[in-house]
């Protein structure tokens, strides 16, 4: 099991970060390095990539607020 | 220096700039309503695009101070400051932006397509599209022997569009009472003026079309007032068109939601220090205007805007079937 | 020994387009890309993200707001051995530059008797539904499809987008590549999930001029393009619950129109329904229906129907805009009526 972590150091702590969208569904097979979600911070977007290959398990739902370093899902 | 012979005009300009800025200040949070946590342009009471005019108020105030309701103004996709300075019905304008039945066109046009026939104001979302109609309105005035003028506002990016060159040429060939006003805020969307314009000053292009070209630096309402006064008087006297280029500043993004990655670090903060409204206030006070008069003007301007927004929020949406009305007269 | 599985990842249409252009620019030095805000910004709709960094400002050019000039220039570039990919930011802006498109690009090959071709791609955003009002929400499929000499395509998903773009750049003809804003994958505008699909990393083509049957059925043919394909698929799912098996066709190409695939489907089902979001009169529905009805061999079980945007400018206020926009519910309602009718 590999944790999917929201990136750190890319935006201010005071800014609100949200999962804009997941590009895959829960249970899909994803490749390491593939962009799996888009994180929206104010008006900018950041790509969240899969840290490993395997089955995606989504933790944080779309439109939910997330913090830098937070675990938002897992890959098994 | 005394308060001067055009004191009432200057106070009017200050009030109209405050009114315009307060209007934008209320639009901003309304625009972001419903668009969080994820910014989705389609959501909220103000869907679609929004182009705010913060910083550009002197251009509208200085020019429109010389205009009457019978004069035509064609504005751009960034129209609020110009509409307010022209005297567009504020309640109906706010309602139109909110898409309500009491809006200028019952919600059909929205923020980029504001029309108020009472004061001959219109705006358009297509770059440079308003220039041809301004020439036509000016020709109509000339044919009818009226001393009306037409003013077309445009951005510096629009000066690279074909319609600009055609309209200026035609205005001179027909010798009509039109004034073209360029609001140079240095950027199209992300492209800076120097990266896409062959000349340093668009006012130099006036020579190619046999009309005077004026360049105004400093985003100064008094300087705009003076130059616009000359150009508009020239037009009213039947002497033909002019081009005015005003160096102004755009304090917000091109559109709301613009991440502005194309602006150099610190640029917006530096621009905020040049905000023309507090600077003009300081100047008026330094030149002997009574602070009570300024405060009264501010209070009046703000209350009109607040009232317009309250009315807009409270108004009903139109019956959707009315979408089919006014396709044809 | 079988070849390795192509590496797939899900990407939105914007990325698929940028990837295609980038891949072709890497292998073909005659390809360049230009338009407003496409260099530094990567395109207002993300179509050229990353290209400036990879290929530099000579081949990735921000233009002034001068559509007639730079699209005209693209025609000249295409006649001179280059392959320009040009962006017209909103299809609604075609009014300021249509001459360069329909009178120059589209007629270069014909007027020269084949001596001079025009291998140019004009990519442009279409579609509304998010409050951008009458001059920023149009589709104009029929306007462009109607005029001879240019190919017109519109992908409904990222897989097709990449393959179509590669095909378009390699095509010696001018190709108008329309991309629908509701499918684009921009963070600041909602995106239909079905448009984000698996896209191979390597080279492949989706041929221009071929429609796809994206869902098979035997009772009713639903024809659409772009965002409408997803509405058709939604409606087909709902119809299946009622025991109606709808076949959904994604046109992909507006011109050349794949009449064969449409006719073959209607020959099977006998019932035809077209949905698109361009203006109704003289539109996509009209052309598809005429193409079917004029086929002497085809027997229809019910009069064909079309759903489109009415012949009015796009209104700003959402209550009006959403009232008039075609959607899956309207499609479902019309489909049920067709199933109940007999010719």
Which SSEs are present, and which pair or pack?
The complex is a heterotrimer of chains A (76), B (329) and C (343).
Chain A: E1 2-5, E2 17-22, E3 29-30, E4 35-41, E5 44-49, E6 54-58, E7 65-66, E8 71-75
Antiparallel strand pairs in A: 1-8, 2-4, 2-7, 3-6, 4-5, 6-8
Chain B: H1 7-32, H2 57-64, E1 72-75, H3 80-86, H4 90-97, E2 115-116, E3 121-123, H5 131-144, E4 150-155, H6 162-174, E5 178-184, E6 213-216, H7 221-236, E7 242-247, H8 267-272, H9 276-286, H10 291-314
Parallel strand pairs in B: 1-3, 1-4, 4-5, 5-7, 6-7
Antiparallel strand pairs in B: 2-3
Chain C: E1 8-11, H1 13-27, E2 31-35, H2 51-55, E3 60-62, H3 67-79, E4 83-90, H4 98-104, H5 108-111, E5 121-126, H6 141-145, E6 151-153, H7 158-170, E7 175-180, E8 197-200, E9 212-215, E10 220-224, H8 227-241, E11 246-250, E12 253-255, H9 259-269, E13 272-279, H10 284-293, E14 305-309, H11 318-324, H12 328-340
Parallel strand pairs in C: 2-3, 2-4, 4-5, 5-7, 6-7, 10-11, 10-13, 13-14
Antiparallel strand pairs in C: 1-8, 6-12, 9-11
Helix pairs in contact in C: 1-7, 3-4, 8-12
CATH fold node name of the largest domain in chain C: Rossmann fold
**Integer count of domains of chain C:** 2
- Rg of chain B is 19 Å
Oligomer: heterotrimer
Radius of gyration of chain C: 20 Å
Span from first to last CA of chain C? 55 Å
Shape category of chain B: globular
Task: Sketch the topology of chain C as an H/E string, one letter per element.
Answer: EHEHEHEHHEHEHEEEEHEEHEHEHH
* Helix/strand structural class of chain B: alpha/beta
| Largest sheet descriptor of chain C | 7 strands, mixed
Structural class of chain C: alpha/beta
Q: Which strand-content bin applies to the residues of chain C?
A: 15-25%
CATH class of the largest domain in chain C: Alpha Beta
* CATH class identity of chain B: Alpha Beta
Order of helices and strands of chain B: HHEHHEEHEHEEHEHHH
Helix content of chain B: 40-55%
Characterise this structure.
The complex is a heterotrimer of chains A (76), B (329) and C (343). With 76 residues, chain A is mainly beta. Chain A has strands at 2-5, 17-22, 29-30, 35-41, 44-49, 54-58, 65-66, 71-75. In chain A, the strands form two sheets. Chain A has a four-stranded antiparallel sheet, with no helix packed on it. Chain A is globular, with a radius of gyration of 11 Å. Chain B has a seven-stranded mixed sheet, sandwiched between helices. Chain B has a single domain (7-315), classed as Rossmann fold. Chain C is α/β, with parallel strands linked by helices. Chain C folds into two domains: 10-200, 3-Layer(aba) Sandwich (Rossmann fold); 212-340, Rossmann fold (3-Layer(aba) Sandwich), CATH 3.40.50. In chain C, strand 10 (220-224), helix 8 and strand 11 (246-250) form a beta-alpha-beta unit. In chain C, helix 8 crosses helix 12. Chains in contact: A-B, A-C, B-C.
